[in-house]
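Appendix B. One record, verbatim.
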Amino acid sequence: MIGEFLSAPVNGGFRMEDYWVWCGSVIRGEEGSYHMFASRWPKWLPMHPGWLSSSEIVRAVSETPEGPYEFQEVVLPARGAEYWDGRMTHNPHITRSGNTYLLYYTGSTHPLPDPVPGDGYGLKDPRCIVSRSNKRVGLATSTSIYGPWTRDDRPILPTRPGRFDSFLTSNPAPCVHDDGSVLLIYKARQYEGNVHGEMTIGAACADHWSGPYRVISQEPLFPPGKFHIEDPFIWKAGDGYELMAKDMDGDLTGERHGGVHARSSDGIHWELCPDPKAYSRTVAWDDGSIRTMGSLERPCLLFRDGVPTHLFAAVSDGKQGFADATHTWNMVIPIKG
């Protein structure tokens, strides 16, 4: 069970006036404050696919889990086309093992000029096409929440020719165990001719978070013909695992882009919970209003003593998802104990 959702604070979460903000992942730092790692990219770019060329991971801080969070710094900036993550960092997931902070993320690169205002960047732009095909999962580490962060020159989860993850790997969802080993759920796409196929979900593991990581699912975890999901988030629950993800079509939860809830005993074999709906895009706010958000995705839970206390999600103010969004931010929903 995730728990009963309470009213979302209207003035909570994290937003920036001149940026699209997405992908909020929160952890309590060594000094007791709450730190959100998020993605941002400038608003002169389209929300989608502007992130593919120009997203960067930033850190914001609050004294409470609800926020509001205040911007502190860029954590993983662009660092040059020659690096696998040199042009874009996205999908942060912050966690900890012992005294080391682990920042899992998606990175990409391309050898073309950076977008500039008015140059027509969009889905058919070569920079977008190349960036999408170069998406890979990486890991940055630090012994302090304030950095500095060490980034590898290679991703931890490359693509595999001829497999369901031959086109890209992204959206990392790690579960780090007490002994330092990791179960890593991730999003994948396969080459189908010269383009990518549908979204699928795979599983990898490592005996220690430092790697190497090896894929343990020879087929997607969920049959692509029946499960069209993305944005997984997993956590340890009893003798197994639980998962939330975005229901792309609504076939699993009855709500398009609602949240799917599933369980597994081993991290490989998953089944839907008896009540498979984890959350809704319709949100009750603490000013008494109820709104159906244009987007509500990238779910992330904050835990205290093994119990989920807050749900974070990326949201947009439009009615058609990305298409008519004028503002995006990372919201927070408290969970009743």
